[in-house]
Amino acid sequence: MNRYENLRSDGDLDIDQYEKRAVAAIKEHVGVGSVLLALSGGVDSAVCAALLAKAVPGRLHCIFVDHGFMRKNEGDEVEAAFKDRDLHLTRVDAADRFLARIAGVTDPEQKRKIIGEEFIRVFEEESRKLSGIEYLAQGTIYPDVVESGVGDSAVIKSHHNVGGLPEDMGFKELVEPLYSLYKGEVRDLGWHLGLPAAITERQPFPGPGLAVRCLGEVTKEKLDILREADAIFREVIDSGDTRPDQYFAILAGGRTVGIKGDSRAYGYTVALRAVKTADFVTAGYAPLPHSLLSQAAERITGEIPAVNRVVYDITSKPPGTIEWE
């Protein structure tokens, strides 16, 4: 049993009371120890950091692992957003290391497991450079637990912060103060803790990043293509009046025949995904205007030579998941 899973009370969640219970639980758990946190810049890790900073000020060390699977310019944005906060922040450039670990791997579960384990290895190595780091904190939330098949639940997809922890992880225990919360509740808690909207409203992003939005084998070339396509799609959405709860691009596994200029082209297919959801446990596809989808497709195929086809995913969750891998 996770010591943080019963922090919420029955019925509607009282954010103020949850914060007080979470801070008290962290203090009791950690005592005078220090904590290491993976700070990705996403909502979950940022809210976790805010809670930990309040509970154990001066004893929180945040490590941002740039695994090379981030969205366009995201690494620099994360560093800039947190550099002036009351945190000890270290950025680790590990892109080549992670790409080498998953070279040739096509199975999504293998990708997640390998990347999850590599995360822990990087944390262990960085923690050895610090003194007195006993606890590893994670921004694990309830949908992560459910989808990873904890207890009697079936495995839908493993999350690196649930199923990828090696037994010899090198830390005393895990600290997971968001363990019983849904995504919307985490956002509310972040707002309550005074985090800026740029963080609390940030879209969910999987721990393995673009590695699980790039179907099949992951290469630097494919990641660069996907980064550009994803950035274009998000720009188009942000410029319109329709705002889904989550939206991103996927690089499909195979190539298709197309036309570039007057010549035959054999290029990649980009799939666009946008959903509406209240809790991210279930979701429906967002009925985006055709004019917006057409704009996205024209820009992606026009600005990225390697892409010659764009499709839109209209699958709900269930039967599909929000992510493709």
Order of helical and strand elements = HEHEHEHHEHHEHHHEEEHE
User: What is the overall number of helices?
Assistant: 11
What is the overall shape? globular
Report the radius of gyration as a whole number of Å: 20 Å
Bin the strand percentage. Answer: 15-25%
Distance between the termini: 28 Å
Give the spatial strand order of the biggest sheet: 3-2-1-4-5
Uncertain stretches:
153-166
* Assembly level: single chain
List keywords for this structure.
19% strand; 11 helices; 325 residues; 5-stranded parallel β-sheet
Description:
- The chain is α/β, with parallel strands linked by helices.
- Helix content is 38%, strand content 19%.
- The protein is built from 11 helices and 9 strands.
- It has helices at 15-30, 43-55, 74-82, 95-101, 108-128, 142-147, 160-163, 183-192, 197-200, 220-239, 290-303, and strands at 34-38, 60-66, 88-93, 133-137, 173-175, 246-260, 263-276, 284-285, 307-312.
- The strands form 2 sheets. The chain has a 5-stranded parallel β-sheet, with helices on both faces. Strands 6, 7, 8 and 9 form a 4-stranded mixed β-sheet that branches.
- α3 links the parallel β2 (60-66) and β3 (88-93).
- α1 crosses α8 (183-192), α2 (43-55) packs across α8 and α10 runs antiparallel to α11.
- The radius of gyration is 20 Å and the shape is globular.
- The two termini are 28 Å apart.
- Residues 153-166 have low confidence and may be disordered.
